[in-house]
Sequence to fold (127 residues):
Amino acid sequence: MSASLLYIGTPAGDAYSTVADMVRYSIALRGNRLLNPPFTRLLMTGKVHHQQPTVSWHQSDSYAYGLSDARINGQRLVWHDGGSQGIGSQLDMFPDLGWTAVYLSNYGYRPLTPVIRAAEQLISGEK
Fold:
């Protein structure tokens, strides 16, 4: 067993979660149950604009406090991804549409990319 698999919740990630927990987090965050409305907006609004979006199909991608803020087909997307050896995950929140999508994989992050892209296109109405 790899030493990286022995730890839960290191500074670089490696936390364990479920789809249900991530959806509950999204609902609580967007419903201002974790933070008051001004701090929720602060957390979810990008501060530092990337020269190029971190994901090629996102427009005007910027980074906030642990979350990225982007646009797809004019729809706002607040998201965060992560991965480790054999693990891939992403949380997508479309605050204006009320949608949350959670992607978890035990194949790493790269195999998730086409699934994420397809789901983001469907949710945002992109053709």
